[in-house]
């Protein structure tokens, strides 16, 4: 170790007055031994020092000869020889001025022999201030390579040693996925004022469990399900849950163990919800999916944040429901849809000058405003920003004529009115405006509009629930779902399946008690297994907004993970 080498060099400069009392040959032998030791010719050095390890009257080199002989044996990996030599040195010269250097050498020997108890016993005898940093370095050098169980045992036997505690903390942070280990790490950091490891992958505590509990709070309405009279919400809930169950079944085979705990909470189920949240066992839940009703979701989200549990809304796009860093949305919010469709227009459509129209609802206007901001933030121009409804629909042609047809980059229509859609496409055709249109998914439900019109006018549609049937139908999930339910999976079943696979994997990787939003904001997006992309860079909601269009009568997604 470092200090042993320094001591050798110091020995080269012992005062000449010491040597003046020695015979000439003894002096020569001593100097040759030191030179050989420095040159790392340990066997030859041992031979020289051996001749000086005799109790002659004028042998002033005897103590140092013992020390350097033992040191040469240690460096030559002759541990037993070194140990015996240092033992004889301490026994023959108990008051030797450099006795603490011998203790340091003993520490090195016992560490090499994996006798950590004796190694630390000898190091703890050293009081010299100048040697303390070398002691720290020696402990770190040998202890850092220990496996975690052995290191924990060593730390327990030396509970007051801050160096060992710090090494243990660093080891846990870098290697352990065990809840008890992480709690031990936090306790040591707090009680001994240790440094938090910089190499820790997850900020804060990282709790990894063998099994994870996912609470599914949905309006199943079990009584109706039993009588086969299903309403819309009970069908959505049943589909979501069935998709989640199939994902759990698959994850179980990969080592990710999930327990799905279903809670049936209806629209007027306030008492039931309070009872669920008051149960002590609910604090053992690691992830919450639902509820679907806004007021219930807000209440559960507050409870979840208090207990550091991540909660996911599987169907809403309302940003007002996002209250804290533990709340996530599977769907992009209205604001995100407006922003990402604007970025798509600038990047993929080469759009410089946009015309934006929106309906009467607050949501329509909010999406249009965010689309406008994205256009302007990316160097584009918004030539028209107008509310459009029955009161001014007759003025649509005049509005469109404010920009030359060839200068229109794209037209964004944030309206769910079939009348607005029809009038817009007719006016564009009459004015020979060939710019692409970006519209809402409600346009796919219009009875008097068809794929031929949309394809001819290059209509792009924001469709957060887009389901590529070819992918779903070819999946193992499709076969399993149909086998168990006798019907093909709908969008909600696919959401439940994808959501469970993605977030179940995150629990396995990052544990619990950590905000997934804070983790995911710097994590690369990931393709879902069936329908979408998971991208939480920059928000609590999914930042990937699928945009589709008809190509030869088939609806296809035109933006990809790479182009988002």
Automatic annotation (TrEMBL):
Record key words, sorted: Signal, TPR repeat
Keyword Lyase: no
Region forming the signal peptide: 1-20
Domain of life: Bacteria
TPR repeats mapped onto the chain: 63-96, 100-133
Annotated Leucine-binding protein domain residues: 238-511
Family that this chain belongs to: Belongs to the leucine-binding protein family.
Full protein name: Tetratricopeptide repeat domain protein
Organism field: Microscilla marina ATCC 23134
